[in-house]
Structure formats: C-alpha cells, structure tokens
Amino acid sequence: MTVATTDRTLMEGSEALVRAAILADCKFFAGYPMTPFTEVLEHFAELLPAVDGVCINAESELEAVGMAWGAVSAGARAATGSTGQGLALMQESFSEATLAEMPIVIFNMSRSQGDYFQATRGGGHGDYRHIVLAPQDVREGVEIVQLAFHLADKWRNPVMIYGDYLLAHTQESVSVEKVDFPPLPPKDWAVDGSTSGTGHSRTVTSLGVAKPGEREFGQEGKAQYIATKMAFLEREVRSESGHCDDAETVIVTFGSAAKFVKYAVAQLRDEGLKVGYVRPITLWPFPMDAVHDAAVGARVVGSFEISSGQMVDDVRIAVAGAAPVEYIGGVSSDHSGFGLGRLLDVDEIRERIRALHEGRPQPVVPGYEEFSYEPLPHQLEGTP
Amino acid sequence: MSTVVKSRGTVTIDVESCKGCDLCIPACPPAVLTMSGPVNKKGYHYPELHPGCTGCAACLMVCPDYCFEVFRFDVPVETEVNA
Amino acid sequence: MSTTIPLGPVLDTTVAPGAGARVVEPQLPRLLFTNTHHLCPGCGEPLAIRALAEALEDLDLVDTAICSLGIGCYTSFSGTVDVELVQALHGRAPSLATGIKRMQPGATVFTLQGDGDMVNEGLQEVLHTAARGESVTCVLLNNGVFGETGGHMTATSVIGQRTKNTIDGRDAAYHGYPILIGDLIARLEGSAYVARGSVHNAGSVARTKKMLKRAFETQRRREGFSFVEVLTMCPTGWFIPTSEGPEYLSSTLGEVHIMGELKADGVIRTTEELHAENVRKAAELDAQLARGGLED
Known about the structure:
The structure holds three protein chains of three kinds. By secondary structure, chain A is of the alpha/beta class. Chain A has helices at about 15-25, 40-45, 60-75, 85-90, 90-100, 115-120, 140-155, 165-170, 220-235, 255-270, 290-295, 310-320, 345-355, 375-380; strands at about 10, 25-30, 55, 75-80, 105-110, 130-135, 160-165, 170-175, 205, 240, 250, 275-280, 280-285, 300-305, 325. Chain A contains 14 helices and 15 strands. In chain A, strands 3-2-4-5-7-6-13 form a seven-stranded mixed sheet, sandwiched between helices. Chain A has a five-stranded mixed sheet with strand order 10-12-11-14-15, sandwiched between helices. In chain A, helix 1 (about 15-25) crosses helix 2 (about 40-45), helix 1 packs parallel to helix 7 and helix 11 (about 290-295) crosses helix 12 (about 310-320). Chain B is mostly beta strands. Chain B has one domain: 2-Layer Sandwich (Alpha-Beta Plaits), CATH 3.30.70. Chain B is about 10% helix and about 40% strand. The N and C termini of chain B lie close together (about 5 Å). Chain B is globular and about 35 Å long. By secondary structure, chain C is α/β, with parallel strands linked by helices. Chain C has one domain: 3-Layer(aba) Sandwich (Rossmann fold), CATH 3.40.50. Chain C has eleven helices and eleven strands. Chain C has helices at about 45-60, 95-105, 115-120, 125-130, 170-175, 180-185, 200-220, 235-240, 245-250, 255, 270-290, and strands at about 20-25, 65-70, 85, 110-115, 135-140, 145, 150-155, 190-200, 225-230, 260-265, 265-270. The chains are: A alpha/beta, B mainly beta, C alpha/beta. At the A-C interface, strand 2, helix 3, helix 5 and strand 9 of A face strand 2, strand 3, helix 2 and helix 4 of C.
C-alpha cells in the first residue's frame, strides 16, 4: 500500500493530513475520540500498522499525550491530538514535555478559532512556547504536517497544527506528496536501554536533576535554559501577505477563515477598493513584522476571526499604534457547536470588510441578536 | 568464665553515611550489632560489630543508606569473649 | 534455633578483611552511582531500589533497562541510578512506559511510582496499561502516604492511619476505604504477574527481590503486564521514630495490603487468601537467616 498519492485523489482533510504524517515517518499516534478530531485518530489507526507503526486509543487525552511523550523519548516520530476540550486536559504534559525538549506533534482540530489563546499562550504552567502552524486548506495542510514534524525534531520542541472542522472534514482533490527538508542530527539522546549500566545512561527529563557527568542544571538553570531557547524559535515565523503595498484597509486572518477572506478581498479589489490581507501561517511566533509593515501605510487594520476576538490582541501588539485596529469577526457556530458557522460566508465577510473600509459599524452576526448577554443590576452596580 | 565465639563473616561499615535509623540492630539474627556511643559527623549514632557475625547480609539488606559491605571468612575466626 | 551470643569487644569495621575472606555482598549494587541520598533516616524506598537494581543485574537485563519515573521522594534517585530514565509527571509513568515499549520493544521498560502517584493521580493509567496487556513492569512503592509533601492520606492509607489530613485516624465514614490496587490489577486479563512485597525485614526484602525478578521475566517472555507493589517504611510520614518503622508497617499497612503473589502462572488469589501463606513463609525465612544466610 502506498501512502503517497501523486495523482490527485478526492479524500477528506483528516486522511490527507494523516497520510502526510506517515510520509514524514510518523510511527506512533495516540488519541481519544472527540469531534471534529476523531477522524484523524481513525485514519492513523487504519494506516499506521501497514508501516509498522502503532496507533493506540488512549483511555483519555491525558494518557494520549503521555504515550506520545514516551514514544518520542524512545526516538520515534510521534503525535497526539484532539480538539480544544481534550487539549485542555493535556496542558500539564504539554508544558512539562517542552521543558524535557520533546518533539511531539499535536493535531488540533478545533471547534472554532477561539482556541487561539489556548494554542499560542498555552494553558500549561511556566515559560514555554509551542510553534503553532495554521493551514488554510487541505493542500497546505499536507505540507504543514510534514513541516511540523521537521520543526519539532529541529528544535526538540512540541509543534501544533491548528486546524478546524472544515479542514478535517472537507473532501478535497489533493495529491499527498513528500516534502524534503534539510537533514537533522541523529537522536543520540533517545532511550533504548543500551547505555544503562555504562556510567553514562541517558536521561530525558524536565527536571534539573542530573546524574554524575551530566550537565547540572538544577531547577533554576533548567527554567533559564528553556526560557532562552524559546526566543530562538521565533526564527520560524511564517506568513503570507496579499495586496498590502497600497492597501488602505488590511485584514489579518488565519486558517480556514483566511480562504474566505482572501476571496472577499479579491472581489473588493475587482470593485476598486484598496484592501489587502496578512495571513499568519505561524500563529506562534506571530508575524509581528509582516503585520506592522502592512499597517504602516494603512488607514485601518481589521482582525477577522471566528471567535469573540483573540488574535486581535496580537494584531494590536504588532501594529503598535501605526493604525487603528478593529475587530470584525464574531462567534459563529452550528447547531452542534462543532463547526464554523454562518459567519463563514464570502458575502457576510465581504460586507464586514466593506463596512470597516467605509468607516461604518459592523453588522451584527446573523441570528445571534437574541443570545447577547444581558447583565443583572447587581453586576452593573458600582462599575462605570 | 569465657566463651569462644565463632565469626563466619564480617562487615565494613561506612560510618559517615549512617543516618542512625537503628534498623540494622534488630535485623541481625545473631544480634552482634549495637549502636555506638559516639556520633558521626552528621550527629548520628552508628552501628558497631561484635564477634559472631555469620555473613548473612541481613544488615546490608535493611540499611537504607547502603553502609554495609559483607564478607565471609574461608576459615571462621574465633574470639574469646568474657561473660 | 537461637542461642544468645555474649557480646564481645567492638571489632574494626573500617577496612575490608584481607586474604582469607571473600565479598558476599558489595556495599553498592553496580547500578547505583553513590550511596549518598537525601531520603529520610529509616526510609524503605532505598531498600526497594536496591532490590530492583540487583534483580536487573542478576537477570542480565541491565543494558536493556529503561525506567519511566514518577514523582515522589524516590524521584531524587534519578541522579543516583545508572539506568536510562524518562521522567514522567505525577501519575503518568505508565502512559510514557507504553509509548517507550511500543517503540523499543526489545527494552525492559519499568515504572517506579509511589502510592500517591500511582493509586491516586494515576489510577486510570495503571489500570488501562494493565488491561491493554502492555509488556511493561509497573513497580509501586507503597508507604500509605504522600511522603514528599509531608505525609498526607492516599488511596492506600489504611483505616485508623494517622496522616496530616486524617489527624484522628482515617475514618471510613468520612474518608472512605483504601484501594487494594494489586487485587484490581490481578482481575484484569491483560495482567500476567501481580505481586505484593515489603521491605520491613531482610526476609521480606529477599522475597520482594524474587518478585521483581519474576516480573521482569514475565516481561521478557511477553506474557503480559507485570506489577510489583512494595510496602516501604516512612517514619517521617507516619510520625514515628525510625526504629518503629518495620513494626508499624507490618501491623498497619501490612495487615491490609498483604504480601504475596496475587497472580502468577494463570492463578489469581485474593488478598485474603495470601494471609495464611505469609505466616508460613516468614517462619521459613527467619530459619534460613539463623542458619547463616538466605538461599538465592
């Protein structure tokens, strides 16, 4: 059975992402079913055994990340994944594994773009960062999955792939081809038992404890070491900009939403409106320079997200006062709360960009007026 | 009146590593370990050996600080002990 | 048979005897870098770790050994034991061990965890790892308290046991009952060898070392999940003098978490069934020691 398909084949996003992972030599996956991530687990279960890999249905997300941690410590390329709620359970392990320099790849098939904070700020303890890659569609996802495994091993750091329901479930015609990367050093640090009893047995730890002959970090030294390492990861920033040279209005957008925004921007350009976009491909490190450069000549910068507004914080930091920043996205989901909802519509998005460009108030998210929060009197007392 | 006591074995005791837990004393089947009067550098009393050791290594097995090394003589050593 | 030997003079124990004597047991097992550690006086955990190190050596498994280590007082041994080590979070060692063994099937993979770690935080992990029949060995150091944080109740603390948060003694009505983890694991089809040992005296240490060897052999033969629980003294967490540790262990934890093999060669026995057998075995080992040494 060949995993690479050089002919374009119709397949759902999850399958393409998993085939890309296997092309990247991923040999272990552990996960727990949760919509819209479940199909990733299914495809790994189906495809890994044929390449002598192992896929385990873990008893909970906590154990899934633990198993992936064990697998990478033993030298294999390994991954885990879930959606926001499941990733929430994994946070202690995410931060500790970063301290232990574990190259775990994380498939985040989120239920909205409102897990941006969870992904980029991290819900775990301490000074750590994960590289977060957000593909806009399945075709880019195939490359990004392979890049994720490369970057994880390059830096010995967890890397997250931030996807969503659309990415995981859309059937696209795609050819899953191997991407080549520069060579990496061998994993001498990985355990296999062979150095036990030699006086130089390997240690894979997040703690500062050292065996005789090992570098003595101590807890303080380890914290310093990892905190200063994070600064170097910022070299992996990636983004895409379009029509920004003469743009008066710049929209910052990521993931599946970005494809809709780009189409709307093209439509507005056809009408003669000077609109441009910046699409972060790495959510962390956030493309501060690219967003700032686009903002410098613009009248206004808008952040479009399917959430109450999270990336907009990073946009404001990047723009640093060069232009006003406004939020033009909104919460938008479907009946089940799994997908990306009515706001993911080119007409809706185009009119929101037009309103921003023309200095008019944003339309209310369709159908959501009745659910706006109404504070109680005691909650308003004493505050302006 | 004196008795001849046979020592089939003996031990070395890493006195400075001892934390004075006393566990070796009751563990010794012929009861030939007693805790010292003086203390080591950490301030702990430590075990002292008397004739009659059998080299069974029970003391070694119960010592949390790995203070003992246990030996067996090719020919038992005899010691005269006054009652 | 014991006759009291009259106490003779203090002998010189500072130097090894010269010719005419041979080493029965070296001071340090090969796998320990040093005997220096900061665990409390009278702690039972170093005794269990010594037995484990010797078991690996006796079975010639040293150059395959990988430890997935939990979080507790014993974590400090990560700087002392010459075994490949992957440090896990509290309760999470079995899932790491699973990933390690699946990717390095030729290794001898074991966890080392305390009762707070394994039976509180990580109960789900160890049960599922056993249920899946993962070919790893989980080792439980059970002292009935969270030692490292100062002596608090765990899921294995026994009724009446005084801990920092059960100062008047564990009361079933308010704090519930202890979990006998070995019995739970023995009932899972994926487990092949389940045993409970102790280190309160030399005989128990010897018995426990045999259990550890049987567990590792189970792993090497790929018969399924193996598990050894080791009761250890914690005089600090029990608020007693060090010399009372062994007696406290055997009369409190030892009366509930009974020593013996709960599952071996396809036969499952309950904790209750083990009690009678222990009385017989203890007498046997005492006799061997009195005769001058334990048979291997």
